[in-house]
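Reopening this one. Same input as before:
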Amino acid sequence: MPPAADRRAFALLGPTASGKSRLAMELAGRHSEIEIVSVDSAQVYRGMDIGTAKPSAAERAAVAHHLIDVAEPTDRYSAGRFRADALHAIEGVFERKKTPLLVGGTMLYYRALASGLDALPAADPAIRQSINEEARARGWPALHAELKRVDPQAAARIMPNDAQRIQRALEVFRLADKPISAMQTGKASVLDFTLKAFALLPQDRTKLHQRITERFDRMLKEGLVEEVRELGRKHALDADLPSMRCVGYRDVWGFLNGNFSAEEMRGRAVAATRQLAKRQLTWLRTLRAEPAERLAAALRAG
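Same output, byte for byte:
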């Protein structure tokens, strides 16, 4: 079924610290019909506010935001759950005769929404525990090398320290006895609305890196370490949870557990955020989205 002509959603995508949230709020200030749907794998978790640059209470009061604070830090929120939640949220926006504006930088989530998900084996707690124990003993780069042997195509697009994706790729291989890359067909999923993507691509990588550093230092001043400490008091957290694998949080969690010094924590977090931005930019260039400066005209056109 082709998408209805009057059901149009827009996406504003960009790397971390690129200013996409600020631009989205500016656009929402000029277009009262906009409701924002977050595409951020960290902002879904309650209590993780400072380190995710979550919209303030005032911003959320001014403009409706969806898919923020929808999971506990102990939950294993997934791309599949995001797709279901996002479709539900978008449908609600349409029912209110408003315009959905998806905003974020979690490209896996956007791809899940736009293209659907392949039928992969369900998570197996025993296998995941085994993989995590191996990682603690040998390190994630060693498991990435193992992935390279069994699924070079998947390994080529997964960074050696991307624990969550390495774990899932090895888990699928051990469950299905076939590479995850062979099971990801990339077949498009039909949406019953039009989804048009726009990308905010900083041209000066040095300035982006500077903003990343300044933003993390600001988060530290605003109390990021205490935020993570309080999360640890309230919840049974561990380093293998998706929430504690989020950039910044995993480094502060390691610091609080005595794995490295405050200075090392800051350096690791900044470096990891820069690597994340690099991966996001690479993915966005393959998406071939329209430049963000054209989004305002698209919104005016309806």
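So the earlier flakiness isn't reproducible anymore. For the record, The chain has a mean pLDDT of 92.
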